[in-house]
Each structure stands twice: as structure tokens, then as C-alpha cells.
Amino acid sequence: MNADDSDALGSLMLDAYRGTVDDHGEALEWHRTEAASTMSGRFGAVLWDASLLATSGADAIGACIVTQRWGRPLLAFALTRPEWQRRGIGTALIARSAARLREDCYKEWTLAVTDGNPARRLYERMGFVQDDTLRSDPRDA
């Protein structure tokens, strides 16, 4: 994956979020802008070695985007196109990202997930645990 993949990532985001708890009716252009801003550092510097794009032919079918945030790697996005879900693509992408992070001597990473997102089960199976310390910004108190 590289910064030139933002259009493909935006299209994947639109399809992966459609009809889910994370779907707020955003258009394709919004998702492409979100992808481009992520790749430009909105959620921290992208760790390119650990950020992966799965394709079938010319189509993006899954992605795992890892950034450096809060002093450690952040799984910023883990997406699979709906027709490719439940085939192990998300699991494989996250596992491969984790392996690459270990190769770069990272011992832990984090993610943020919306309450009600069914991917939470996948994250828990892969060893992520809920940590409410990141739930809100202490400056909001």
C-alpha cells in the first residue's frame, strides 16, 4: 500500500461501511477525502510496512491501515468489502500487519472501534482488549 491508493481505499471504505453502525450516509467523495487525509497523517504517520491492501484483479477487497498515534501503532482502519467478508481476509491482513510490527520491534498496538461494530469480535479473537482510558479526551472533563 502507498499514498497513491487513497481512491481505492475510499471506495473500499464506502462499501465496507454501507449499512453498518459506521455508515452516516457519506458519499464516495467524502470517503476518498477521508482516505487521503489518513494517508497524509490525520491519524498519525502511516506505518507503510504494516499497512496492507488486498486486491482481486484491479479491485481493492480489503485493507489494514496502521499509523503511529498515542505513542504506539494504531490500527486506524481494517476493512473488507462485504462480498469478501467471512473468508479470513481481515484476519490475515491484521495478522500480517502484526507480524510486520513485531519485525520493527513494536510490542503492542491499539485501535478504536465504534460500539456496536461486529468487527469487535474479530479484534478480541486477535488479542485486542478494551481499554477505556482512550475513550475520551481528558481535556473534555
Notable characteristics:
141 residues; alpha+beta; Aminopeptidase; 5-stranded mixed beta sheet
Mean pLDDT: 90
Quaternary organisation: single chain
Sheet having the most strands? 5 strands, mixed
Mass-distribution shape: globular
Q: Give the class-level CATH name.
A: Alpha Beta
In the CATH hierarchy, the architecture is: 3-Layer(aba) Sandwich
Structural notes for this entry:
The structure is a single chain. The protein is an alpha+beta fold. It has one domain: Aminopeptidase (3-Layer(aba) Sandwich). It is built from 4 helices and 5 strands. The chain has helices at residues 6-17, 28-39, 89-103, 119-125, and strands at residues 45-46, 52-56, 59-69, 72-80, 110-111. Strands 1, 2, 3, 4 and 5 form a 5-stranded mixed β-sheet that branches. Strand 3 and strand 4 form a beta hairpin. The model has no long low-confidence stretch (mean pLDDT 90).
List the helices and strands and how they pair.
Elements: H1 6-17, H2 28-39, E1 45-46, E2 52-56, E3 59-69, E4 72-80, H3 89-103, E5 110-111, H4 119-125
Parallel strand pairs: 4-5
Antiparallel strand pairs: 1-3, 2-3, 3-4
Helix pairs in contact: 1-2
